[in-house]
Specification:
single chain, 18% strand, 95 residues, alpha/beta, 4 strands, 3 helices
Length: 95
């Protein structure tokens, strides 16, 4: 089973990744350097998520200060789910 984790460097993400390693295939995705939504690389970035059986989104900012913080907190999960639907993928998604 392939598990993809965003927010892997935070408290919860670190604990989850440490417990999953050796038991599952774990892919860590960093959203801190998320490509611009309008860039051609953005859809390629989203394609990383299509191979996962489980997606655990731990990426969030408790005190968002920038547009990117707000995008990650509010818009990114919806955009990701829509992208997965377009690709006819339905992984177990935990947000």
């Amino acid at each position: 089973m392939k598990i993809l984790v965003t927010g892997y460097s935070g408290f919860l993400g670190t604990i989850l990744c440490n417990n999953f390693l050796g038991k599952f295939e774990v892919q860590k995705v960093n959203l801190r350097h998320l490509p611009e939504k309008q860039s051609s690389y953005f859809n390629e970035f989203l394609d990383k998520f299509t191979e996962a059986d489980v997606i655990i989104n731990c990426a969030a900012n408790l005190k968002p200060k920038t547009k990117n913080d707000i995008f990650i907190n509010e818009d990114f999960p919806i955009i990701l789910l829509n992208h997965l639907k377009k690709k006819d993928r339905n992984p177990f998604f935990i947000h």
